Model the fold of this input.
Amino acid sequence: MTTKRFGALLQREWMQHQRGWWILMATPVVVLLLVAIFGDVEITLDAEDDTSVVRTPAAVLLAMGSLGGLAICNLALAWFSSLVQSPGLARRDLQDRSIEFWLSLPIGHAQSLGATLLTHLLLLPWLALLVGAAGGLLVSLAVVTKAWGLAAWFTLPWGALVAGLAAMLLRLAIGLVLATLWAAPLLLVVMAASAWLKRWGLPVVVAVVAATGFVLDRFFDWPIVAETLEIIMRSAGRAFIGADRDGPPHLAHVADAEGATQILRALPSWAVEDLGQALQTMLSPVFVVGLAVAAAGFALLVLRRSRGA
Amino acid sequence: MEPLIQAQGLTLRYGRKVAVDDVSFTIPKGRVVGLLGHNGAGKTTLMKALVGLLPSQGSLNVLGVDPARDRVALLERLAYIPDVAILPRWARVDELITLMSGLHPRFSADRARALIKRTSVSLADRVKSLSKGMVVQVHLALVAAIDAQVMILDEPTLGLDVLSRKAFYEMLIDEWCDGERSVLVSTHQVEEIESLLSDVIMLNEGKLVLSISLEEMDRRFVALSHDPAQAAAIAAAHPLLRYRVQGGSAALFDGPPPDSVQALGQRMRPSLVDLFVALTRAPEMNRTQG
Done:
């Protein structure tokens, strides 16, 4: 029953927010599709004699850009939108006056909040990633067909493309979990503050963090707050992708089809290495303390909900 | 037989403020209990404690469990309508049925659909497009589709017109009450539900002033209609309340009035409203009647 109930809570999030989510996920696809149909894609290259050459990119590059670009764009949009909305999520059921209905059902407070957080912070961005990749496929069809003809799209190196794209999607999907864990202390503290202090939650958290950082830095010469925030931000960003700062191999040859295909073939192994690096960065005191702070924030959210808010 | 709800020395607080003070009562199975009290008397606070949404002092046992400790397990066997128009406005009725099916182990989607069919609401309607009365009907249909042992209703018909109120209580009695299940309902429309009740609990400023079955109430409390000219003699017998009835005056006594007074008027059944007024009215207000 617990699993069924949790599934129903996830379904509730989908029912409540699906319209906004579809708009969020479909907009970049539609815009790029229109651009692909009605616009031109060209890149400017520096020739050896120091003159610029404008030319249409190779078909495989167009496909890579469409598939990867849209997937990443959708993922970033969905995650960013969830982060921005998270303080409001803490008080959502109170604001629409449905809180008492949910509290009248046999659902644990932690289960309720967990389903909301899981859906908004992970499931939605994951779905956005997949929708972005699927939309990218459509855009690649349009843009490659327009530039090189339909046959060029069918003769793309699909094996390398699918393998490279799958590796990147998987890396991004796992990276999303890691980035969310890194951001969890900030996120949950702000949510808890919003739940308890309503609209003053975010300003109070910002003011307290800024004042603490200022005092420790100015009077104790201990800039720990700024350093911790910097570590969290940087680690969250790199957890997504790019923890391996050297980047994928053969990046310099990205401008031609052969180089692009090589990169695609190298992507799976690079993604694994990159993920390894991202996991390594989690073995840090900042991450562990951050998780403890996040747990405290979640406990405060549960306590607030148990009191009917 | 163990009662479904048992409270002993129950005290509920909001911070330092005592909302319910040392209350004791029991609700056996198969009863329809009215919880009466003025605004701020502690009715909602008591109901929240009964469903585990407020911590309490004293002893509270609902369906064999401590509500605050086992809220989720309790709510699987207890249905609760906390207030009017609190269904999520974004949802369609059929979505609510789908959700309830997943969230409540004793919810019957088929029964909910059947109950909704008897109202003027369609399954495709969104809650935000429904009138207040319709929302309450939908809410009751959803809750009545739960195979629970106790239903707790906190002012369920507040703000509804008379037809909606009637439809609500008809559905409650016809579709849910089966002689085994119990209902605890708080309302200000005492006259409308008096005929449905088997018991009544009255709260006044957080204190329990009466917990009694209606049969017992009829035996214990006596109203005497009398000629206004006998008012002084009746007042001398210290009734709980003196009030006007059609064509004359009446007095309400806790227990049989003295024989000398009984001869001055005609015995009649006291109404729940009059008893409520008598027991919850401030003493100084009673004095002004004398």
Summary: Residues 284-290 of chain B have pLDDT under 50 and may be disordered.
